[in-house]
UniProtKB/TrEMBL annotation:
It comes from Paraburkholderia ribeironis. Residues 444-597 form the GGDEF domain. Pfam families: EAL, GGDEF. Residues 7-257 form the EAL domain. Signal peptide: none annotated. It comes from the Bacteria. One of its GO terms (molecular function) is cyclic-guanylate-specific phosphodiesterase activity. InterPro entries: CBS_dom_sf, Cyclic-di-GMP_PDE-like, EAL_dom, EAL_sf, GGDEF_dom, Nucleotide_cyclase, Rev_trsase/Diguanyl_cyclase. This is Diguanylate cyclase/phosphodiesterase.
Amino acid sequence: MQPPSPSRSAAPPIGELIARRELCAVFQPIIDFADGAILGYEGLIRGPAGTTLETPFALFSQALAEGCAIELERAAARACIEAFAKLDFDGKLFLNFSAGAMRQLTDARDDTLALLRQRGVDPRRIVIELTEQSTILDVASFLPVIAALRTAGAQFALDDYGTANASMSLWVKLQPDVVKIDRFFIHDIASDPLKFEAVRAMQHFAHASGAQLVAEGIENEADLIVVRDMGIGCGQGYFFGRPRAQPARSVTDDARDALRAGHIAVFPEATRTVHSASSSGGMASAKMLVHAPALPRQATNNDVLELFNRLPDLHAVAVVEDDEPVALINRRSFMDRYALPYHRELFGKRPCLQFANASPVVIEKSMTVEQMAKLLASDDQRYLADGFVITDNGKYAGLGTGENLVRAVTEVRIEAARYANPLTFLPGNIPISSHIARLLGNDAGFYACYVDLNHFKPFNDQYGYWQGDEVLKLAAAVLADVCEPTRDFLGHVGGDDFLILFQSDDWRERALRAIHLFNEGVQRFYAPTDRLAGGIHGEDRRGNPTFFGFVTMAIGCVRVEPAGEPWLYNSQQIASVAALAKRRAKHEPSGFVLIDADESAALLRGQTDVAPVSAD
């Protein structure tokens, strides 16, 4: 049985607590990432210890029930100001207010700003936070409240941005000096690509509006490093300290070490599972869309002929009713029929649907690329001759041709593969180059390790691409398993080539473990007889009979030292030197080679020729 929880004594009404000055102020530090100094403290309130009103939630819930929430807010502010003045701390004091309390705060009868001066707290050190519970029905009438605060010297902040009432429209209208990002978006941001993208969008808007961002809810080093490397300047959370009546005057050694950590965060956007080729149907639709006029159902064949004569490049015309396609008329088919003797005289004034395809191929603009690819492989090949209709939410948008469909699907897949490999979903060449640029730009040392599979082509030739793909997936899984996702970047260059940008201190052990795990695991893809034989019989590149051992992993590594000047190296140079190390590793029994520091420095600086990257 669980031991009984300690009972809490009943608390008096909120008015009595205020009158007896039984509210306790606590403070949580807000850190400036640039120098690790404490920028200021958020002042929070607690009820009498050991009572049912000790927590702020219970305290303000009871105040709402008693109809004295604003009185509690004002009393809480006074308690925080008095306690902060007694502590004699440097930095800013952040105070929470609802919209209603802020209106009273700026009223001439309210003595809060006067209390600041009496207690020796300069109003210019105060930041008033608009709490996320606030609903402002008339924003225009609230603007003078913010202006009055600023006139008094205080700053204005939007709290818990991204939840409840803290919306972008409010940000635009109120133009806060500070925006505090709600902890929901910061917690686990190191591993959540959607949260990362949301915060990055906030960051772009903050830059445009001139607001300072504060990341709330930082509870671990990984989230801190991501937020720091994104360029957000300030943060608070349990990682730096919990709210206390006697908070620390400086950050802890652990927090300072984390802020000064030399490794650069691997942003989650670069490691997430990306289905770019599957989801970018809009891009493919845009590539193949032909803007073409349509004809109504009541149009005649003469109208069709006039349109084709006027637009000689138009391959077809859609027939629509209420903006929805009902048929498609192919130019060649129509003109061939109309060229027959007397057809114009006989059919010219008849409805155009007479020579139309009443069940054309229709592609919705939002259709995924994979759905388009299935259309290419289907038995229904009418689109090759007739073309097809493209709709937007069921409404006619334009036309497309079979040739344009093939080209659009191919181009989108190629472009998507540059960002994420379609087989392993690992980052492709563009994210790889981007992360190398970030590492160089931040003067971070790292190990670039080029990974290749020996004897993969003979295996693929004998067992087929399906089994070959499974081997590539195994390699990707093994490499991902040995990487520390917040420090080590794993990308898929293409085919059986991968690149790891290691920042982990034990990078060598991780690379060797990957080789061992892969070399053992890959044998399960061989037939029993080939496993007993130790490999397969095949032909080399010249057609000579050759025996190939098992597919094995080779990793060539190069140390990239902090250069001081990021322009000294580029991603192509680093990849080329790592590829050289990989070629050497393919001839080593261990499958592992590290180019020493002196040689790598010479190669990277161009003092020794490096062959271009190849996928041998």
